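Q: Could you write out the predicted structure for this multi-component system? I'm mainly interested in how the pieces pack against one another.
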Amino acid sequence: QKEVEQNSGPLSVPEGAIASLNCTYSDRGSQSFFWYRQYSGKSPELIMSIYSNGDKEDGRFTAQLNKASQYVSLLIRDSQPSDSATYLCAVRAGTASKLTFGTGTRLQVTL
Amino acid sequence: DTGVSQDPRHKITKRGQNVTFRCDPISEHNRLYWYRQTLGQGPEFLTYFQNEAQLEKSRLLSDRFSAERPKGSFSTLEIQRTEQGDSAMYLCASSSPDLRGAFFGQGTRLTVV
């Protein structure tokens, strides 16, 4: 079982719709959760972090965390073509400092 | 520019040669990470430093790989006797003591021919 799992996609949504990206993790001791956006040929860019159960909103982005279900999600409202990218879920377990990444979900926002 | 800086951006080398990459973290960040990423995969952890101490090294890292962070500032990653399987994007990231996320440099793309 992979430590962090994501559906590789592509996830295709029309412009203006809500994109929902999901991630599950295996280590129940995980305490910090991050979403990164990565455009083709570029490095990952941190867009959201979440540390406690519930929702955290930042502009068009909402991160959701459910530790009991070991599940993290990212919602992108009013999706734009510029949101087309790969979204990486990353988890930091306990006091360990490294981030463990999933393989990413490729999002395509269509006109 | 106060972001993470990596050098070079691209490196083409012949199999068997040694290569060295440099990373300059964000100045107030005491933690520095190296990751490797291949096409279609997420970043794979290689090693990380807290200040000058190398605290963890991936089991996947062979003896051909070594990293240093003298004086807790910039870091270097050296690959000896490169193989074609080493071709990848090598990413450096840094984070502050509160561990609120890690910020990546632009990466070094290595091609071994």
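A: Regarding packing and overall arrangement: Chain B touches chain A through 26 residues (CB under 8 Å).
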